[in-house]
Design brief:
Oligomer: single chain
Strand content: 5-15%
Radius of gyration: 13 Å
Strand order of the largest sheet: 1-2
Number of helices: 5
Order of helices and strands: HHHEEHH
Structural class: mainly alpha
Distance between the termini: 5 Å
Number of strands: 2
Helix content: 40-55%
Shape: globular
Length: 110
């Protein structure tokens, strides 16, 4: 994972565990001083997409923001939000282990 992706993951682990603690991508960009790109922090969206697809991070999205998936209900919400837009990402989300503090993501990969 890149340094920025590691920082995003740490922020999610500290502030966005579970759907009740979502954080907006724009807020992630501001907190981590990631320069704005696009109309909706598109660069942050890309980092997060790669974190799910490449590194299998249990990160969900919904209309309120981004969160670490901690249970099957949250997984279902994240999958439903993606819908038919990205079937590969849906399949990955079906398979990734749920986030718990005891299985924090390995930051030494990639």
């Amino acid at each position: 994972m890149t340094e920025i992706q590691q920082s995003i993951l740490e922020l999610l682990e500290n502030r966005a565990v579970g759907r009740n603690n979502v954080i907006k991508q724009h807020d992630i960009a501001q907190i981590l001083s990631i320069p704005p790109y696009g109309t909706n922090a598109d660069n942050v969206r890309g980092y997060i997409r790669d974190m799910v697809i490449i590194y299998r991070c249990p990160i969900g999205t919904c209309n309120r923001g981004v969160f670490l998936i901690t249970n099957e209900q949250e997984r279902g919400i994240a999958i439903k939000y993606i819908g038919d837009k990205n079937p590969d990402r849906v399949e990955i989300l079906r398979q990734v282990p749920l986030y718990t503090p005891n299985n924090r993501q390995n930051r030494n990969n990639g």
